[in-house]
Amino acid sequence: MKSGYASFLMLFCLHRFNGERSLSAIYHLFSGKKSSQTLQDSKWFQLERFFGTWKEATLNDIEALAEQLLENGLISPVQNRSYVLTEEGRRQFNEQMRQAFFPVHLNGWRYHASEKWFWYRLSLLVQTLSNVLHRTRFEPIHRHEETFIWVKQYLLSQRKMARELAQTLYEEIYDILSSVSEEEATVFTLRLTSFERIGWTNEQIASLLQKDPVYVHFQFQNVLHYMMATAEAKQPSVLYELMHDLSLPIPLTFSTRKTYEWLLRGKSIEEIAKLRRLKRSTIEDHVVEIAANIPQFSIWPFVSEKKAEKIMETVRKLRTRKLKVIRDAIADDVSYFEIRLVLAKEGKMW
Amino acid sequence: MVTLEQLLREKFGYDSFRKGQREIIEDILRGYDVLAMLPTGGGKSLCYQLPAYVLKGSVLIISPLVSLMEDQVQQLRQRGEKRVIAFNSFLETEVKRKAIERLHEFRFIYVSPEMLQSERLLHALMNIRISLFVVDEAHCISQWGYDFRPDFLKLGEIRKHLGSPTCLALTATAPPEVTDDIVHILQLQPLRRHIHSVDRPNIAIKVEKTEFIHEKINKLFDYVKMLQGPGLVYFSSRQWAETTARQLQREGIERVAYYHGGMDSEQRMLVQQQFLRGQLDIVCCTSAFGMGVNKENIRFVIHFHMPGQMEAYLQEIGRAGRDGKRSIAILLYTNGDEDMVQSLMETELPTDAQVKRLCESLLLYGAAPDSLEQQMSACSLTDVQKRILMYFLETEGIASSPRPLTEQEVAALYEKLIEKIESRRRWKRKKLLEMVKWIFHHSCRRELIVRAFQQSLEKKPDLCCDRCGFPLDGYLRVETEKKEFHFHGWQAELKRIFF
């Protein structure tokens, strides 16, 4: 694996995690693992945009990248599989932050589950229109029955002629690509399949642009998420129609969802633990996850305002997320649960 | 009455049958069970697609590969056939439910074997008239097939449940031990066998030995530069396929890509389609490539690593020259290659320790179908290992019994499993040895291949094999103009897509 851009992303994550999470946290973040821990981490450390945006990465890849950074003296170990940036690492990172492409539109938190289907539909629709207009036969570029049926039904339900629909879609895509960089627009266009050209792989585009495939991957994702966000803001549009029935769920794990339902019915943590035959600590994990994800969820039934204030004060003073450090610094009796709850709710405010 | 030829023209647009097709179709229409072994690319699907327009009821096709299934469905739809459905894991629940409700309306019902586990689907199938029961890739039934699948074992019983409709078992090149299994498990009777020669006369066969690996790499580069494409290069590992594809690119050979099972499905599809459409000349791949890839004009297949057995080798070189034109298969061999293949084979078999763990787990939790999968995962078995154990458990009747097992039963099972794995290991070694022997043998390679399948060669082609001797001239690259792609910026390209 060529590692240029991946290394930069690693530095970015390690910088944010600041030695407080291990390499597997980075892996879980990129692969979009729906565990309470990963979901909270991505919020706490403001890495939501990357959630589930690099699903092909393996733990091996991540470890190999860290190994390389370590060899080059850019990071140093603090604990078991946790790293911080060295001074040189920080210098290089800051330099890259100024110069390198950064996926500002990336919103893995919101789109990680729907982007693939949106892209499948869009690219199949483009391929179909292109072939219909050129009167050529074709084989669908995705072997995915659901997408196939969806696109077919979409086309059948259209009152517009194919040419008209193509014109509209062309204009929508053109507008969006005009407001991203030339390179991003190129990447996106080449990934599309037309009547005469099967879409290119990331690797092929990378070799045309003389970049690495991971870089191309994130450029593509960035445009895709920008397109989805634009479509959501600009209705009606063809692009919005492609995504309107794709669910954009609150990312809660299945078990947490159940706990949330019980909470809404007024049950206490203790009662839910009994009902669901789970440990109290498990239910507490769920509550923390809910607090991190659902803005209107109130934490006051579980922690007093006074304690919360104290916890936040300590967090701001010590600039840490380590639970033990926080707890030790507060003389009063606060539980880990209370600290986690406050951190989850207050999220980024430090 | 409409003749078969008329139907062929009307529904499929062909003027005449290919070799063997007519005889198979006639036997089916007479109500015989048919075992058909046709060469790859021999037009197998027509053998059940045409009878569907004669027989009353639906044709049920069981196909193990979703991609293959989708291909067929696509082709049928392109021919204007609307009454076709494919039940596989990709089908949306709602679509599935609706399709089951009006199942009798479909002329073609494609099903993956795991879908047949669904009670509802099975029930619906029992309530309609199945005119023909087709098992595609039937060699998957036999554990002696190179691609056996445990869920195929149930097909015999399922066929009985459906009232034993006429059965057509289609298989690629398979030795007698495999075809015997097929006949036995599917209970084909009265049976007509249509076994066609495994020989592909338009493919010349060449084996080339080198002493060292770097010589082999150079040889590969030479051939790829020299030979007329499009071509496939087979490797035994993903890593090798990737690295070599990149090396070839650095050597100035453009239009090369790699393909293996570790890539995400979209990128895989792009490479496959690019190759089909001639955007790529060469694909460096593992055995994952090729199933369902219907490219007519592949001119060469090179094996950088040898496969573990003749059947796989024949299957892979069979992707060349489906258009009937002159093509070549080259196998590159370096001393010690068989050791690598051997060690790869070893990792495919479960270890004693893993079997022990599984048995202990079975004693604790029983062998209910849904927990079995979990227990296997807990023993850190790979997919291939799981498949083998599943097959053995299935044949032992363990996999479907939900009752707890006694200590004696588990102990006996352990012995059985170890024994079966050992016999499989011996069998695989034997197969590999056969392959190695073939490489070193001094007689005609074509004759040996045909003999391995207990057939005899009718006629030896002029361009036969390296043992018989043939010149390479006819296979060399003739410069043809290529459709070069010129990129004039994204605006122009985007316009080009739509207008």
UniProtKB/TrEMBL annotation, chain A:
Residues 255-343 form the Helicase Helix-turn-helix domain. Gene3D superfamilies: Winged helix-like DNA-binding domain superfamily/Winged helix DNA-binding domain (1.10.10.10). Pfam families: HTH_40. This is Uncharacterized protein YpbB.
UniProtKB/TrEMBL annotation, chain B:
SUPFAM superfamilies: P-loop containing nucleoside triphosphate hydrolases. InterPro entries: DEAD/DEAH_box_helicase_dom (IPR011545), DNA/RNA_helicase_DEAH_CS (IPR002464), DNA_helicase_ATP-dep_RecQ (IPR004589), Helicase_ATP-bd (IPR014001), Helicase_C-like (IPR001650), P-loop_NTPase (IPR027417), RecQ_Zn-bd (IPR032284). It holds the Pfam family DEAD. One of its GO terms (biological process) is DNA recombination. One of its GO terms (cellular component) is bacterial nucleoid. One of its GO terms (molecular function) is ATP binding. Keywords: ATP-binding, DNA-binding, Helicase, Hydrolase, Nucleotide-binding. It comes from the Bacteria. Residues 25-192 form the Helicase ATP-binding domain. NCBIfam families: recQ_fam. SMART domains: DEXDc, HELICc. Transmembrane segments: none annotated. This is ATP-dependent DNA helicase RecQ. Residues 219-363 form the Helicase C-terminal domain.
